[in-house]
Amino acid sequence: MASASLYRCQTLPVKTTMQDDEHSSKTEAAYRLLRRDILTTRLMPGAPLKLSALRSAYGLGWTPLREALSRLEAERLVTAISNRGFTVAPVSREELEDLARARMVVELPLLAESIEKGDSDWEAAVVTAHYRLSRCKIAVDDPSDEAVDEWDEKHEAFHAALLSAATSSWLLRFRSTIADQLRRHHRFLGLSPTLRAAAGMKHGYEAAVAALREAMAIDSHTELMKAALDRDIERAKTLMAAHIGYTMHVYVHSADDAGQAPAGGLKSRPAAE
After folding, report:
1. How many separate domains does the chain show?
2. Does residue 169 share a domain with residue 77?
3. For residues 157 and 133, what is the distance between their CA atoms, to the nearest angstrom?
4. What's the pLDDT tens digit per position in 125-151?
5. What is the CA radius of gyration of the chain?
6. Which residue range(s) make up the domain with 219?
7. What is the pTM of this model?
């Protein structure tokens, strides 16, 4: 009897575990889908995230969506408003400036450490990431969702490769969080207004487009790669600091109101409205 009871105790949790795994899988799917659309601003800053609309758009249940939104709130990508539910976290010039300062503080030491410690595998990873970025079209030449998403992905991969020999897990984690927030701010405050202007919705857009082209051009990334591979830490830090400043440069020249809906390929998902 004792052995039978022990057997039952060991086997009873199996079904529960399978159910838990399925639930966890759905929550993870909801989290990844919402996070992707928030970072790409298809779910626009400030947009309400109504569960009924999200359920219809993503085909997921109430519980996975609620749990995913709670996780995103912890990452400051979603804001919970008492008695009103969730909204996508807002963006602002003030936060953009703060994020740029934070990136300077975190990323420059990581870059210096990575250059000091990087081996031949690190060099190969940087060169490969740069090559893949060089193959991408920039938004001023191709504003489609696919092109912008691909450039975003390859651009992030290039910067991650530059820092990949650094060993501080906390600084790298902070850097990842800052990069995610900057991605939203770049798209909403700089990229989208500039593309709207270039599409003819505003006059005098030339400076904004030129600033965007400069920020996304492969040339500055090539110079950064060369400095890193030459182990010229001071030059690499100077180039990185200038590179971080390009975001504000684009924003300042963007003659548009960031509160308008993105144009071109950057459309907001109606599901959250």
Report:
1. 2
2. no
3. 8
4. 999 999 999 999 998 888 888 999 999
5. 22
6. 93-253
7. 0.79
